[in-house]
């Protein structure tokens, strides 16, 4: 093969980055791929002046790209669900390989798409769908192929990490930082996918499948956002020697595996606790290698383009060598995927941060401690803040030892039923990654 001819659907931030980087680094990319990699056709609703389109055919009909007989591989870079799925499935049926940066598409329809790709003997690559420029999919599928992955935990949404960083560093409240994140383009006008953890859940579902060899199960992911995190909790965590991060956690257990996204207290000495701003990071624990940490830009034009082009190089290598042995889509042969159940959130084991607002009366702490003790929940530390004179209340902050979540739920219910406590108990899970 003299060249791998690429057709791109979309001409936004990532697509323009792919075109610019390929043209700039053509020598290095071709040397690694074993052939020239050329973008020959782009489809988009409009032609934008954000990249060098010299020598590239343009169309406003995306199906023109899919139907172009010269195109060997289609890069789906439009995002979303319905149209993206139609593009990907049509390309596969046309016998074309597919590269996508669409984590939502893979998380929710990947099982169907991979089955169709196997039927038509083509590659579907999606490195850019998780953590932008960090090659975490390749690391799990190939670099750590000799390991049984015990667990992984990741900061895999830059918007949420930016918000929590600003709250920690500058003492700003959530709503204020969210507004800035939207102004900077980090968050959409409707920020639900980012701040409520849906985006991270899409990525975690993919990571868990690749790590554990299980079918994609996004719909079973427990998801809790950061919109209720207060500056008070961020400051309390700091005083206790922790940082609050919005984590995606997947952990293998004897009876299944955990799949959860939620705010988490992490000891401040952990490297992943020091990942700030819009950066992403994934911590992986393998039985042979131990813990490995992956860090980098989780979004952005050329960072994500880096991952897209890495997938294009992989396609070129396979096509150029005429090998029929593709790296399995989820890292494991399809017939070897395990039907492991996702463990309900009520059954996970974790330590917990609890913040209780109570009336400033003697004996309140003893009442709370008694409830925890009766349920077999051990307290690691207690922090009692000064009384708020204007409303005669006192904040109590407790860190517990590890316990099953259903026990902490029962404890919270009993604490909130006390006549001396006010409002809801704030609960944040704690992970130490020992």
Task: Tell me what you see in this structure.
By secondary structure, the protein is of the alpha/beta class. It has 3 domains: 3-133 and 301-336, 3-Layer(aba) Sandwich (Rossmann fold), CATH 3.40.50.720; 136-297, Dihydrodipicolinate Reductase, domain 2 (2-Layer Sandwich), CATH 3.30.360.10; 348-430, Alpha-Beta Plaits (2-Layer Sandwich), CATH 3.30.70. 36% of the residues lie in helices and 25% in strands. The protein has 14 helices and 17 strands. The strands form 2 sheets. Strands 7, 8, 9, 10, 11, 12, 13, 14, 15, 16 and 17 form an 11-stranded mixed beta sheet that branches. The protein has a 6-stranded parallel beta sheet with strand order 3-2-1-4-5-6, sandwiched between helices. It is elongated. The termini are far apart. The relative contact order is 0.13. The mean pLDDT is 93.
Short description:
With 434 residues, this protein is an alpha/beta fold. It has 14 helices and 17 strands.
The CATH architecture assignment of the largest domain turns out to be: 3-Layer(aba) Sandwich
Low confidence ranges: none
Q: What's the total helix number?
A: 14
Q: Specify the helix fraction band.
A: 25-40%
Round the mean pLDDT to the nearest integer and report it. Answer: 93
List the helices and strands and how they pair.
Elements: E1 3-9, H1 13-24, H2 26-33, E2 36-43, E3 57-59, H3 62-67, E4 73-76, H4 82-93, E5 97-100, H5 103-119, E6 124-125, H6 136-143, E7 149-155, H7 158-170, H8 174-183, H9 192-195, H10 198-212, E8 222-223, H11 231-239, E9 242-253, E10 256-267, E11 279-286, E12 290-297, H12 301-321, E13 349-359, H13 364-374, E14 379-384, E15 393-400, E16 403-404, H14 405-416, E17 426-430
Parallel strand pairs: 1-2, 1-4, 2-3, 4-5, 5-6, 8-10, 10-17
Antiparallel strand pairs: 7-9, 7-11, 9-10, 11-12, 13-15, 13-16, 13-17, 14-15
């Amino acid at each position: 093969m003299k060249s791998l001819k690429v057709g791109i659907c979309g001409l936004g931030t990532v697509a323009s980055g792919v075109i610019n980087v390929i043209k700039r680094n053509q020598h290095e990319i071709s040397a690694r791929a074993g052939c020239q990699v050329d973008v020959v056709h782009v489809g988009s609703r409009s032609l934008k002046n954000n990249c060098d389109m010299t020598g590239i055919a343009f169309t406003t009909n995306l199906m023109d790209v899919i139907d172009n007989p010269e195109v060997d591989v289609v890069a789906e870079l439009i995002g979303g669900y319905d149209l993206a799925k139609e593009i990907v499935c049509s390309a596969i049926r046309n016998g074309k390989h597919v590269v996508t940066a669409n984590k939502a598409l893979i998380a929710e329809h990947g099982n169907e798409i991979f089955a169709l790709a196997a039927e038509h003997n083509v590659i579907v690559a999606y490195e850019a769908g998780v953590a932008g420029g960090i090659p975490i999919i390749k690391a799990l599928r190939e670099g750590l192929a000799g390991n049984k992955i015990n667990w992984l935990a990741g900061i895999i949404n830059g918007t949420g990490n930016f918000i929590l960083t600003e709250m920690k560093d500058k003492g700003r409240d959530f709503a204020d930082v969210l507004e800035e994140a939207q102004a900077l383009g980090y968050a959409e006008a409707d920020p639900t996918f980012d701040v409520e953890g849906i985006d991270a859940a899409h990525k975690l579902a993919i990571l868990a499948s690749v790590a554990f060899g299980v079918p994609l199960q996004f719909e079973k992911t427990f998801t809790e956002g950061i919109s209720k995190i207060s500056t008070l909790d961020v400051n309390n965590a700091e005083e206790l020697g922790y940082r609050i991060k919005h984590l995606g956690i997947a952990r293998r257990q004897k009876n299944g595996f955990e799949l959860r996204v939620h705010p988490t207290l992490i000891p401040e000495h952990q490297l992943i606790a020091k990942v700030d701003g819009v950066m992403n990071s994934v911590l992986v624990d393998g039985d042979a290698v131990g813990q490995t940490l992956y860090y980098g830009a989780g979004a952005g034009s050329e960072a994500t383009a880096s991952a897209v082009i890495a997938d294009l190089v992989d396609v070129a290598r396979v096509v150029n060598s005429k090998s029929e042995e593709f790296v399995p889509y989820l890292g494991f042969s399809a017939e070897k995927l395990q039907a492991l159940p996702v463990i309900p959130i009520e059954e996970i084991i974790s330590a917990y941060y609890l913040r209780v607002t109570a009336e400033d009366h003697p004996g309140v702490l003893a009442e709370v401690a008694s409830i925890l003790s009766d349920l077999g929940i051990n307290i690691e530390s207690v922090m009692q803040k000064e009384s708020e004179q204007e409303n005669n209340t006192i904040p109590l902050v407790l860190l517990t030892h590890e316990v099953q979540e259903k026990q902490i739920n029962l404890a919270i219910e009993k604490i909130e039923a006390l006549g001396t406590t006010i409002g809801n108990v704030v609960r944040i899970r704690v992970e130490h990654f020992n």
